[in-house]
Design brief:
Distance between the termini: 42 Å
Number of strands: 0
Helix content: over 70%
CATH superfamily of one domain: MetI-like
Low-confidence stretches: 1-11
Radius of gyration: 22 Å
CATH architecture of one domain: Orthogonal Bundle
Oligomer: single chain
Number of helices: 12
Structural class: mainly alpha
CATH class of one domain: Mainly Alpha
Strand content: under 5%
């Protein structure tokens, strides 16, 4: 019982140490605050948004930003600010869910390859090489074209694209720590391979994966916007940010605000996540701090 309590205290202290270390990085804190505000806004969109995301008013079409419409209106008179709030639910959750699936599958594949090595490792790595032989965006487009457009299919397409990077990262960490004394001690007392992987190898290989996953969310949001922009992602009337850019590109000269604000929403989100990722990297491994 005392041993379990000590482990819990150690894990809690490690988590608090990471948070404390990250709090010294002002840019990381700024990124975390910005992203937290974005999450609150999109979650509370039905309460905050002054209009419905599909509410049209043709008499108010193409209006520039004003007090009545903070980000202006589009070609159908829909309030862009309201659409951004609702659209963030698609863009941000697609990034989070797709990287979450990639990480889970990457952990299974990477830990298997890294622990067993030999032929198992060789077969898995060659399979990942095949997946990575195609450029990431091209692979995602091909998968999306096969599965079809839509929210769920976009998440699945992005997830497949993210698996190789997560798996390779975990495999590399796994191979670094599998020869450690505590792993040999666990093997000497006949611990099962599953227990060794789940209880010892994965927790001690997780730090770089967290950093990569944080920055991976940013990459997934960009790719999701790209898919929607070319018509393979979330479809109208949903107000996903990439779809908003796609529907507004023909008005970029006459009504630039229709393109500016969705692009700004994407840019701010990506910047916040990258700042968070840099802060986590420095907090989890201070040696990497520049």
């Amino acid at each position: 019982m005392a041993g379990k309590t000590q482990i819990k205290i150690k894990k809690k202290s490690e988590f608090m140490r990471t948070l404390k270390q990250m709090s010294y990085n002002k840019l990381a804190v700024f990124g975390a605050i910005v992203f937290a505000i974005e999450l609150i806004l999109v979650i509370l969109a039905p309460l905050i948004a002054p209009y419905g995301y599909a509410e049209m008013d043709m008499a108010a079409a193409y209006q520039p930003p004003s007090w009545a419409h903070l980000c202006g209106t589009d070609d159908l008179g829909r309030d862009i600010f309201s659409r951004l709030l609702y659209g963030g639910r698609y863009s941000i959750t697609m990034g989070i869910f797709s990287i979450g699936i990639s990480v889970m599958l990457g952990i299974i594949i990477g830990s298997t390859a890294g622990y067993f090595g030999g032929k198992v490792d060789n077969i898995i790595m060659r399979f990942l090489d095949i997946i990575q032989s195609l450029p990431g965006m091209l692979l995602t487009i091909v998968i999306s074209a096969v599965l079809g457009s839509g929210y769920i299919n976009t998440i699945l397409s992005l997830s497949v694209n993210g698996i190789p990077g997560q798996a390779r990262m975990l495999r590399a960490q796994m191979m670094r720590v599998r020869g450690s004394e505590y792993i040999e001690a666990a093997e000497s007392i006949n611990c099962s391979k599953f227990r060794i992987i789940a209880k010892h190898l994965i927790p001690n290989s997780f730090s770089p994966l967290i950093v990569q996953a944080t920055m991976g969310v940013a990459n997934m949001i960009i790719m999701a916007a790209g898919l929607s922009f070319i018509g393979l992602g979330v479809q109208p009337p949903a107000s996903e940010w990439g779809a908003m850019l796609s529907g507004s590109r023909q008005f970029i000269r006459s009504s630039p605000h229709m393109v500016f604000f969705p692009g700004l929403a994407i840019a701010i989100t990506i910047l916040a996540l990258n700042l968070m990722g840099d802060g986590l990297r420095d907090a989890l491994d201070p040696k990497l701090k520049r």
